[in-house]
Amino acid sequence: MYIVTAEEMYEIDQYAIEHGGIDGKILMENAGQAIAERIKKQEASRQSVAVVAGSGNNGGDGFVIARYLLLAGFTVKVFQLVPDHKVTGDALYHKQLFINQQGLIESDTTVEILRKDLPHYHFIIDAILGIGVKGDIRPSIKPFIDVINQSDQKVISVDIPSGLPANAGTNLDIAIKADVTYVIEAPKQSLFTEWGAPYYGDWEVVPIGMPEQAYLNRSPLKRWGREEVVSTLPKRDTFSHKGSHGRGAVIGGGQTMPGSVTLTARAALKSGAGLVTIATVKDNIPVIASTCTEAMYHVLEDRDGIITTNDVDLFTAFDGLAIGMGMGREQVTANFTQQLIEKLDMPMVIDADGLHHLKPILNKVSKRNYPLIITPHYGEMAMLTDYTVAQIKRSPFSIAKEFASKHQLYVVLKGKFTIITCPDGTQTVNDTGNAGLAKGGSGDVLAGIILAMIMQRQSLLEALCNACYIHGLSADMRVESGINTEFDLLASDVIDGLSHVFRTLV
C-alpha cells in the first residue's frame, strides 16, 4: 500500500486524467459512491445525515455522497460553507446532480445555523477541506470546525479530517476530530505520525480506480502489510541445516543487565536463526543459560562487570551481529563497539547503548560494504541527530531519510509507526503493535528478530520490514486473543507469541 504526500496525490490524480483517460468528474463520482456504500453498510438506514461541504474537490465528494445516501433512503441535508460562486468545476457538476434529485442545501450556512441544526442529525459527514491544507486555517472556516468538534454526533471525514495537513512536517492549526475517516485511494503521510493519527479515528482506504502506473516513481513510501510478509518470508528448505539459517552473535549485557541479551538471543532463535552465541561478562552466563538453553556463550573480559575486551577477531566467523543491548556506556566499552563496527564488515544491528557508542564514529560508517542497521527510538534518534524529540515526531520521514542517506545506513525508527529507511531513501512504514510494547525489553526483542531475519535469504529491506511486522503482530495477537492485556504484556510474552505468528503467516 502506497503512502503519499499531497503533492504526490495531485500528480497521481493528474496522471489518471491525462494518461488514464479518467475524467475528474468520474474520479469524484467513484470516490463519493465508494464512501457512500461503506456508510450504508455501517449506519442504520433512513437516518438523518448532515453533510458539511466546502468549495473544492472535498466538497464535491460530499455532494456525491449526499446524492447516493439520499437515493438510499437517508434524510440528507448539505450545509454549504461557501457562497455559491465559490463552488465550481467538478464540484459544481455534482452539486447540480444532487439538486436534480431534490436534495436540500443550506447555501448560506452560518456558525449559528450549524450549531443549532447539527443536534437534529444522527451523524455528520465532514467534506470541508481536503489534502491541500498547509498551516493556518482560514478564519472563516475555523469556527465551523469548532462547532463540529463540540457536537455529540458521530463524525465521518472524507479522505482526511478537515484542517489536518496531509504531509508530515507541516504545522497543525485546528482540525476535525473524526470518528471514522474514509481515505481516498492512498493514505497520506500524516496518518502515520503521532500528531496526525488521532484525528483520523478508525480509518479505511477506499480505492477509486487509479491506474497502477500512476504511482510508479512518485511514492517511494509504502505501508508493509500481511500480503508483503507472506510473499517475501523465506521458505525453509527441506535439506537445510543449522548453518543454513545464520550464525549470529548478540554482544552486550553488562553485569547489571543480563536480561537484555537474553531477550535478544531468545527472539533471534525463535525467529529462525540457526545458531546464536551470546557474548557477555562471565557472571551473567549462569543466569542467562537457565533461561536460554539453546544459545552458546562467549566470555567477554570485564572489570567490575564493565566490558573491557578489545578482541574483535573472535567475531569474524559470524553472519550477523546484534550489538549494544545492556552494554553500558563506559568509554572502554564504547571503544570495543567502535572497533567491531570499523573492523568487521558484516551485517550489524546497533541498538540501545551501542547507539551512543556509534555517534562519535558516524563519519566513518558510510565506507562499510555492509551498511549498519540502527534501531533508535525517538530519544535515541534525537541523540544521534541533534534534532529535538518534538522535531523528529513532527518530521519523522524526512529526518530519517536525511540521516540514512548521509551516513549510508538503515534506520529503523521505532514508535507506534515504525519507519524503516534505506540508504537510497526508500521508506516503509510498519503499524503493527500496541501500547503493551511501551515497556523495557521490547526493543531487545525486536533486535533479535531483526538479527534472525537479516541472516535469511531475503533482501535487507524485506528482512527489516518482516521483522518489524512480526514483532508488532505478536504483541497484537497476544492482546487480541486475551492471553495478555496492554498493561501486563512483557517482552518475554512477545517472544512466546512468535510461534503463533509464524503458524498464522506460514
From TrEMBL:
Binding residues for (6S)-NADPHX: 57-61, 130-136, 159, 326, 377, 444
Source organism, top-level taxon: Bacteria
Protein name: Bifunctional NAD(P)H-hydrate repair enzyme
Subunit structure: Homotetramer.
EC number(s) stated in the UniProt entry for this protein: 4.2.1.136, 5.1.99.6
Binding site for AMP: K414, G415, K416, F417, T418, G443
Cofactor info, note text: Binds 1 potassium ion per subunit.
A Pfam short name: Carb_kinase
Family that this chain belongs to: In the N-terminal section; belongs to the NnrE/AIBP family. Belongs to the NnrE/AIBP family.
Residue intervals of the YjeF C-terminal domain: 225-505
Organism: Gracilibacillus xinjiangensis
Keywords: ATP-binding, Isomerase, Lyase, Metal-binding, Multifunctional enzyme, NAD, NADP, Nucleotide-binding, Potassium
Residue ranges occupied by any YjeF N-terminal domain in the UniProt entry: 9-216
Cross-referenced HAMAP family: NADHX_dehydratase, NADHX_epimerase
Cofactor dependence: K(+); Mg(2+)
Annotated K(+) binding sites: N58, D126, S162
InterPro entries: Carbohydrate_kinase_pred_CS, CARKD, Nnr, Ribokinase-like, YjeF_N_dom, YjeF_N_dom_sf
Known catalytic reactions: (6S)-NADPHX + ADP = AMP + phosphate + NADPH + H(+); (6S)-NADHX + ADP = AMP + phosphate + NADH + H(+); (6R)-NADPHX = (6S)-NADPHX; (6R)-NADHX = (6S)-NADHX
